[in-house]
Amino acid sequence: MGNKPVLTDIDQLPVVEEFFSLQGEGFHTGKAAYFIRLGGCDIGCNWCDSRFSWNPDIHPVIETKTIVDRVIDSGADSVVITGGEPLMWNLDFLCNGLKNNNISTFMETSGAYPLSGKWDWICLSPKKNMPPLIEMCKIADELKVIIQDKYDFAWAEKYYGMVNNTCKLFLQPEWSRFDAIIPDIVEYIKKNPNWRISLQVHKYMHIP
Ligand code: SF4
Fold first, then answer.
1. Range of 175's domain?
2. pTM surpassing 0.90?
3. Residue to mutate, 4, 37, 45, 133, ligand 1, most ligand atoms under 8 Å from C-beta
4. Which of 66, 84, 118, 126 has a Cα-to-Cα distance from 136 of 20 to 30 A?
5. How many domains does the chain have?
6. Mind listing the pLDDT tens digit for each residue in 95-124?
7. Is the CB–ligand 1 distance for residue 172 below 6 Å?
8. Whose CA is nearest to atom 3 of ligand 1?
9. How far is the CA of 45 from the centre of ligand 1 (A)?
10. Does residue 2 lie within any of the structural domains?
11. Is residue 5 part of a domain?
């Protein structure tokens, strides 16, 4: 693991951006949710489209209560915590604040760090640079593997073997390789129908 940044108080979190939109990927595609992108990630995927989130020091540190109040004001009934790698932080305070207000909690994580917080849905997206912890695989509700080339199918199957048998399975084309890789994904899913495709439909709708 890399160097975990330190905040002096865990009821504060570095927030890169937050917005009310529709989920664009995976099992909950199309569902309205309030997104909170936390700063900080030391995983370093070469195709990362959120590099601006990597350094937590350049983003405002916000009181958890303020974050929760903003969600309530938005009218959203669910929140997606993403990053960066959100589990670089202790998310107990944030989840408690959301749950106390009957807001459902969804998280997108690489699974490379131990769990904190209470979650209604955990989407595990394993990354080769820093593979997920076994305990994170076992509690994932959804496994979403980014497919960049044909070798990634074996990587996906490896983690299929580590998640529980109710976990939803998705293959998602890496955006910059979409045209090159989509035929392979289609053929793969035809032969392996336990998988489904995940497309980043928010990008087609030009919404965040
Ligand atoms: Fe980017 Fe996510 Fe990989 Fe971190 S884990 S480098 S935020 S794609």
1. 12-205
2. yes
3. 45
4. 66
5. 1
6. 999 999 999 999 999 999 999 999 999 999
7. no
8. 45
9. 5
10. no
11. no
